[in-house]
Here is the input.
Amino acid sequence: METISGLFGGAGEAAGAATAGSSAYSTASTMASIAQGIAQYAAGRQQEGLYEAQAAQARLQSRGEAVKYEQQANGIAKRALAAQALARARAAAGGIDPFSGSAMFIQSLSSQEAGEEIDLSRENAKLALLAGDQQAETYKRAGRTSRSRGLLTGLTTIATGFGKTSQVGGPVRGYG
Amino acid sequence: MAESLPRYQKAGVLLADVPRLDFGDRREQARSLSSLDERLGQLSQWALGEAVDRAKVEGLQFGADNPVTISQLEAAEGPKLQPRGTVFGDAARSIQVMGIAADVELDGQETINRLKIAAKRGEIDTTGVAVELKALVEGAGKSLVKIDPKASHKVRGALATAANSAYLSILESNAKKVDEQTRVQIDDWISNVVPEQVRSALEAGDTIDPETGRVVTPRQRIVASLHGPLREKLRGQTDEFARQADKRFADIVARERVNALSAHALENNLSLGQIRGGQFGKYAGTWREMQADDQEKVVVNYMQESGRRHLLEERTRKQGEEAQKRDVYGMLSDYWTMRDGPKKDALKRDIVAKGQGVLSFDQLKSLLKPPTDGGEGKADVTLEIQAENAVRRGGITDLAEVQRRFPGLRPAQLKHLNGVINNSGDRTLNDGIRLLAGIPDGLVQMSGDQQRRKLALQTEAERLKLEEIEKNGKAGAPGMWSPSSVLAKLRDAKDRITADKEVEGARATLESFGQSKKATITENTSEQELKRLKFSPAEINEIKRRQRLLRGER
Here is the structure.
């Protein structure tokens, strides 16, 4: 549209008119628009920073959870080994071969159950890590979007300010 | 058996729930797009506003640069009337419609003004004007209603207001004209009809009403037949005019009464005692009803007219004597040149017979002697007679001229001839006074106005004559005066002398006519000028009658 192209095309002239010779209020309005644009861009960057921090926090949190689950798995493994050791000791004390027959079966059963829980814990740890990474990525993308929005908003604010100030106008000097 | 072997006790580990992720990126994207939408919306609004504003301005400019008239619309030519529905179109159309409405209103106003002038000139009556105005207002509204009902309504309202105002102005003007015409008619009736009818009523005296059997006096008849109708005519007139009309009526009635009684007294040769005693026969009742001032006027009129008649009789007698003397002198002139004989004797007898009434015996005797050349101390009678003939017949009015043409006349003869000249001068002066007073030749019974005018002119003429005699006396010509000089001065003072109530009324009427046309009307304004001022024929006749009155014409 003519008016839009005129708006942007004439922004430089308007700026010239606004800054060169128009009233102090027009200048103040233009400066305010520029400041507002910069502030909006800065706000976007701030928001990006916030999201970056949130991403880091999410990653850390997921790491912590993963460690807890690993620890849980290790605990289970320890308890399983202790139970096996005790079972073998008792079997041996009772004159039973601990490595065969029902004694072995019981140990195998214990190992199996412990193994299931260890696997679950380790799966949980993986899940936590995965979720944490996903969340961190999400926050990073959010941060990038905030930055872009801040930039775009700031630019449009400055452009609109120039355009509106150019409508104020001033005397046209010369002849003809 | 050995105690049971320990088994691993389950810790109850379950698969963790899938953690809820915070989709901040989606949220931020949505927020960004929303912000963008808002910004773009603002930009679009602003740009549209700018476009609309510029379209309005361009539309107004286009409308002003491309005006349209009703005739162009009807003929489907010229610039196009912009359609409604767009900002540009609405703006351009509004200006074009304003132009059309202004044209229609201007045409309508011009037509209204033309109708107003035509109606005031009398070229169209009020009914015709009303019809034309109504058609104009409705026609103007109809021509615009399809284009713009609002503009049509506005123009119709403006023209209706102007038409109402014009119609009211016409009605007021007509009412004023009618009032003026009515006033003129009333003035004319009072001036022309009332005196005649008052005279008739007075002439009839007391009568008996056949219905009631009662006596009806002239005053009662005047009130019934004149004063009543006058009140009717004055209804609707201003108080000031009614007052003046009433006064004029009363003055005319009083004047006619005085005239009637004065004439009766003179005709019947009443004595002063009879007059003061009210012995006026059929006019006795009128005498009794009159005010003391009016009764005194009757007495004065009687005395003045009696004196005038006495003077007239004296003059007539003297004129007769003078005529007889002229005849005798004429006969003497023939006698002196005749040869002696029977014819001369017969002529002598005729001279004696004719001269006995106007000349003494000694005068006759001396005249019948043959003429002599006079000599020292003796007057030449023949020369005197010749000179007297020349004064009477030749119209010599100057004594110096007499002396020049007839040298040898003695002082006594010159004195006598001066008396002859003066008498001739008096006759000339009296003839001139009658002319100035507007009294036709031969009229003996004059109206009261004529008598008053003549008396006033005679008084002034006497004063001017004495003034001239005194002036000439100081200049070495005692007793000399010139009738033509006195008449010339009298003519100059005529307006001042002859200003009476009728003349004042005539002047007032002319002034009133003049004011109606914002012009000055005098007794000398020509008929052509009156026609140029658009007076009607009836009005021109009225004006001319009053002009004649002011000029002393009847």
